[in-house]
Structures are given as structure tokens and as C-alpha cells.
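Submission checklist for the structure archive. All mandatory fields must be present; incomplete records are returned to the submitter.

[x] Identifier: 1-phosphofructokinase family hexose kinase
[x] Organism: Sediminicola arcticus
[x] Residue count: 314
[x] Sequence attached
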Amino acid sequence: MKRILTLTVNPALDKSTSVSGVVPYKKLRCEVPIYEPGGGGINVSRAIKKLGGSSISIYLSGGPTGAYMKTLLDMEGIVQKIRVIQEWTRENLAVTDTINEQQFRFGMPGPKVQDAEWQGVLKELQLLLREDDYLVASGSLALNIPDDFYARVAKIVRDKKAKLVLDTSGEALDKGAKAGVFLLKPNLGELSSLCGVSSITTQNLEPLALKFLKEHNCTAMVVSMGPKGAMLVTAKGIEHILAPTVHHVSSIGAGDSMVAGMVLRLANGDSFRNMAKYGVACGSAATMTPGTQLCVKEDVDGLYHWMTTQKTIF
């Protein structure tokens, strides 16, 4: 198995709770909160661990929230490479209204990262990466980190002859993707932004995805489509992966679980087709868990078995 490293430059201590009704101007009595380490790459490392794999989690950390995150990750057995920063790691909040079964998610912007701090991450990557490693760069950029940061990461990965898996959004995605990556996982909105169109329809989805892949240094793309599954795009063509129908509880962590499953399969030498199917199974399994919890291996195995043994009847 190839090594997997994950990178998170704007991690978050995720707090989730529930309350019987959300109304304004009233003190709401919540249930005891659950704290979990979060942020794109950190969640990918946690999901990989749940699936029986291993990775090295590289992330920026500061203050008491950062220290508590380290403690939680230690408890999960996650191998960590921490870059300490001056400002505190952010907290995010998810509140479920148990009366209406609605979930409210509040994401904070995060700390302002000094130039020397984010530049230190790039130097760390140059020392850590080896040929054929998989690096998962996932999540938003913290304040003051330039929007070409992932493009700089892509160059380092390319120089080291490693493979970059990128999962982010906005300008960071646009510049990072166009700098060259091994695998992209955009959703439909992110793909439309990458392709410079206002929206994507059934008619132009496949041509746009193939055009982007052809014009940029990208080996494969998996377009996540929520409950509809995903679309795998490679130079050999396109395949639509249908998602299994599950009891939906929470969508938090579905994308990170999907990435974790895909990179784990790739690191084990599996095909793009099986990678994409396993990723969809992981993402679907994550929606079956409450709050900020990630996929459960038993659920993933059951869904993947169903996806790979069912027979389609026309």
C-alpha cells in the first residue's frame, strides 16, 4: 500500500448538539455537546482509520482548541504532523432541531495565519513527501493564506513525483486544479465554476467534464452529485455511479468520507471504477450517521457489496 498524507490548513473543532425547537430571543436548552476534530484533511484521515487504513495528518494548530484537537486525534490513533500557529484553531457548531428534524450548521472563518506559518507548511511537504505518495489537500484556506496555495502544493507534489487529490472550493480550487492534480472531487456547482459556466445541465455535464480533463493536467475526476451518486471521468470515458438509497440522518462528513474511501482504494492499487464505487458507498454510509460523525466500516461494506453485486434490469 502506498503512503497517504492529508493536509488541513484550516481545521476546526466541531461541536454538535440538539435542541427541542429553535426559536429567536429565547434561551434554548441544548443536549450535552459532542466534540470531534474536523476540517477536510483531518476528517479524511479519521475516515481512513475507520475503514482500516492509515495516514499521516498534517495540519495547522493553535491555542486550547488546537490542543484539545490533538488529544481527540490521539485517542483515535491518528498519526499527526502538527504545525503550530499563533492564533487559535476555530470551532464550528451544528445544532439539530429535534422537533422539525432540521440541522443548522455554523462555520467560523478560522485564524489569521502568518506568512511564515503557511510557508512553513510548504517546506514541511518538501521534506515529508516521497515518490508515489498520495497527498489529500482538503478543506478551506484560513485567513491570509493566498488563494494560489494549493497551486503551490501541486507543484511540490509534482516535483516529488507524488499524487495530489484536491477537494476544496472557490479560487483555491480553480487555481489548484489548473496547476495539475491526480484526482479532483468537485460537486456540480464547483465543476461549473471550474468550467466557466453559470450552471450545468444534463446535456452539457459530460462534455464540460471531459473538456476540462483534456485541457488540464488532471488524471481523473469524480463529480459528486449527492443522493444521485457520482460521475467518474477519465481519459477512457465516463461512468455514472448510482448511490444506494439509505436512511438520511446528516450530510456532514459525507464528502470527506467519500474522499477517504477513494484514496484508500487508490493507495491499495485498485481501479478507478472500483475507487469511485467505494467512495460513493463511503459517502452514502456517512449520511446514515448523526451529527458530525463519519462513515462506519460495517455500513460501507454492506453498501459496497450491494453496489457491486446488484444487477440492473432495463
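[x] Structure attached
Curator remark: The chain is about 40% helix and 25% strand. The longest helix spans residues 272-286.
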